[in-house]
Amino acid sequence: MSFLEHLEELRKRLLRSVYAIAAAFAVCLTYARKILDFFIDPIRSLPGKPQPVFLDLTEPFLLYMKVAFLASLFLSAPLVLYQVWAFIRPGLYPRERRYATPFGVFATVFFLLGGAFGYYVAFPAACRFLLSVAEGFTPALRVSSLFAFESKMILGMGLVFELPTLVYFLSRLGLITAGFLWRNFKYAVLIIFIVAAVITPTPDVVTQCIFAGPMILLYLFGILVAHVFGRERAPQAATEEA
After folding, report:
1. Which residues pair with 53 in a beta bridge?
2. CA separation for the pair 217, 209 (Å, rounded)
3. Which of 50, 128, 159, 236 is most exposed, with minimal Cβ within 10 Å?
């Protein structure tokens, strides 16, 4: 395709993704109150059972919109990931297009697993640490800032958990190998901590380690994935493709 045709294809895929998110948003907005209760539940189960508060009159209304949007991202994730694949698919060789189904399945599953890890493990752990630092004070947790902190944790973990999917895809294409990943492990750890520092919603080291720890484990799991599913690019096949 020409450059303008690529732009038209990108526009079409983006619009379909927006439509999918918008439809999911309309559904989630109907259940925004129940979804918010679900997100706030880890806070209420902490020692002392702190109750979130709001300061502005319009804050609950805007919060419901944000809650519905976050839930719509997870609900529409399979369709959005399919649009991503449909955009890059024409640029692949026929034998590489067979990875469409594994890519969609793995990407969706690991994104949901990352969100679940952020909700059930990372977010409560970060809250316990930050509340322990404030021992002796009475917490008045603003519900909007609390949800903003939690949503960053959940979305960040969802993206972090896509690492094995990326490794699987690149290793099946022969672009990376298990040996390459293992040889560069020490550099990967450095990059992981830098990325964790960027995406961590707070400046404390404990929350940064909550992000970095799973990323290191996922990197090691990615080495195993590359070893099992990866393949070396055959020089003759690569020459023919070129």
Report:
1. 142
2. 12
3. 236
Q: Is 0.85 topped by the overall pTM?
A: no
Single-letter amino acid, residue 198: V
Hey, what are 242's tokens? 């070129």
Q: Closest Cα to residue 74, out of 115, 122, 103?
A: 115
Cα dihedral sign for 51, 40, 66, 163?
A: positive
- Name 225's Cβ contacts closer than 8 Å, sequence gap at least 6: 164, 167, 168, 171
Query: What amino acid occupies position 197?
Result: A
**Residues 136, 205, 142, 75: what is their CA dihedral angle, to the nearest 10 degrees?**
-140
Nearest to 232 by CA among 151, 166, 170, 157: 170
Distant-in-sequence, close-in-space partners of 105: CB < 8 Å, separation ≥ 6: none
- What is the rounded CA–CA span in Å between residue 148 and residue 131? 17
- For 2-54, the pLDDT digits (tens) are 777 778 888 888 999 999 999 999 999 999 899 888 888 888 777 667 778 88
The three-class DSSP label of residue 104 is helix
CB atoms within 10 A of CB 110: 21
From the number of C-beta atoms within 10 Å of its C-beta (0-12, 13-18, 19+), residue 121 rates as: middle
Greatest distance between any 2 Cα atoms in the chain:
70
